[in-house]
Amino acid sequence: MTQNSSIHRRAQKPFRILPKKLLSEFPKLLNPLINLLVRLKISPNALTIIALLAGVGAGVLFFFERLVWAGILIIICGIFDIIDGRVAVLTNKQSLYGAMFDSTLDRYSEFFIYLGIASYFRNHWALWITFWTILGSTMVSYTRARAEGLGFECRVGFMQRAERMVFLSLGTILGSLFKVFDIVMIAILIFIALVSNIAAIQRTLYVRKAEKLSKSGKQA
C-alpha cells in the first residue's frame, strides 16, 4: 500500500456527531415496519413521497406554531427517508432513477422544513441565520455530489442529513415542551449553519488534495 492511498483512506473516514452505535442500531428497530411494507408491496418511491409530505407538513406547522407536531413530522420524515432505501433493497427495486428521486425529494423536504422555521422567525433577527443554515445544508450535499461527479468519493466533514434531522426534531420538541424553543432553535440553527458550511469548505479542499495525490501517483 502506497503512502498516497493511505492518506486518501484516512481523509475519507467520515466523522459523525451521532454515536456510531445509534446509527447502526436504530434502523434495526424499523425492521417490523419495513417487513410490513415489503409484504404490502409498497413502492419505495411512494415512501419517498411520504417523507416529502412529512417535511412539507412540518414546515406548515412551524408557520402555525404547532411546534411539537412539527418536530414529530420531522422525525417521521427522517424515518421514511431511512425506510425507502431499505425497502428498495429488499424488493430488488433499486435503480439510478430511484436514487436520484430520493436525493432530490430529500433536498425539497429539508428546504420546506427550513422554510417553515424561517416563517416562524419572520419578525425575528434569527430569520437571517435560517438563510445561512439553508445555504450550508445545501452546500454540504452539493459539494459531495459534485466531487463524486468528478470521480472523487467525498465523505469528509460532518453534520450530514441524519444529524441535521435529529437536532431539528429534538430541538423543536424539547424546546417547545420546556418553553425555550426560540433559544434552543436559534442555537441549533447557528450550529448547523457553521458546521455545515465548514464541511462544504472541507470537501472543496479535499478534492484539491485528492487531485494532487492522484497526479503525483500517476507521475510516480
Textual characterization of the structure:
The model is unreliable at 1-11 (pLDDT under 50). With 220 residues, this protein is mainly alpha-helical. The chain contains nine helices and no strands. Helix 3 packs across helix 5 (67-90) and helix 5 (67-90) runs antiparallel to helix 6. The chain has one domain: CDP-alcohol phosphotransferase transmembrane (TM) domain (Four Helix Bundle (Hemerythrin (Met), subunit A), Up-down Bundle). The longest helix is centred in the last third of the chain and has 39 residues, at 181-219.
Number of domains: 1
| Quaternary structure classification | single chain
Radius of gyration (CA) equals 19 Å
- The CATH topology turns out to be Four Helix Bundle (Hemerythrin (Met), subunit A)
> Span between N and C termini?
14 Å
Order of helices and strands: HHHHHHHHH
**Beta-sheet strand percentage?**
under 5%
- The CATH class label is Mainly Alpha
- The averaged pLDDT comes out at 88
**What's the overall geometry?**
globular
Q: Biggest sheet, in brief?
A: none
Individual helix count? 9
Portion in helices: over 70%
Total number of strands: 0
Task: Please identify which CATH superfamily we are dealing with.
Answer: CDP-alcohol phosphotransferase transmembrane (TM) domain
Q: Which CATH architecture is right?
A: Up-down Bundle
Structural class: mainly alpha
Low-confidence spans: 1-11
